[in-house]
């Protein structure tokens, strides 16, 4: 039996569900719908979706979510989406999808994307790419990702998804809280991480910082990210972009949509994030 979590059933059975989360789940069931309502969506916007893990027992559910988004938005690549919010060419509703942490199951998710003519982005940590030691993986997942142990992509996986037209971005070297880092540590986590990825994979243009909330990045870290040559900084702050932004001052907003989210929940989140347009670094 594998020590790694390989299905959503295994993931859900490994985690206790609080009363608060149960109430939230049922509330979202009531507030959400199985379809995105046209009048509740912005007329023109760029929607950045992101997830962490993909499991084989969630494929039909994830396909349903992506199909509903695809019915209302035109999927484009992450880089094209960044270009649209930076140059102001938002002439309709666009969407893109990215994943954080570099779990090996992104390779399987990318096959679903291929089937649906969607190009994905995965933000990775070079320190864990190709790691096979279970103790090290378990420690990384437990201490840094607050997750049960899951396998990570190796460099061959990275080359495969790039070959198939997907993208790879920088998520720091070892998934740290940037606010707690010294300038020397930031150099390793951001600049050296980018160099390692580029040496192995080619040009790396985009960065997503770990933990994603506003409190986990500061001006010093953001400046180092941009000076290293990254074109954008992605957060995990909810919202979608309806107007042009200055990428030297503003982070990309992303909406979390996990593969196991009920369709009603995904629709609710997407329909209720349109009022947030920017987050100043």
User: Helix segment count?
Assistant: 10
Rounded to an integer, what's the Rg over CA atoms? 18 Å
The number of strands is 8
| Fraction of residues in helix | 25-40%
* Largest sheet descriptor: 6 strands, parallel
- Element string (H = helix, E = strand): HHEHEHEHEHHEHEHEEH
Low-confidence stretches: none
Alpha-beta classification: alpha/beta
User: What portion of the residues fall into strands of 2 or more residues?
Assistant: 5-15%
| Shape category | globular
Nearest-integer average pLDDT: 93
Separation of the first and last Cα atoms = 46 Å
Q: What report would you give on this structure?
A:
By secondary structure, the protein is α/β, with parallel strands linked by helices. 40% of the residues lie in helices and 12% in strands. The protein has 10 helices and 8 strands. Strands 1, 2, 3, 4, 5 and 8 form a 6-stranded parallel beta sheet that branches. Helix 4 links the parallel strand 2 (74-75) and strand 3 (93-100). Helix 8 (183-201) runs parallel beside helix 9 (219-227). The protein is globular and about 50 Å long. The chain starts with 7 loop residues before the first helix and ends in a 10-residue tail after the last helix. The model has no long low-confidence stretch (mean pLDDT 93).
Throw out a few tags for this protein.
281 residues, alpha/beta, 8 strands
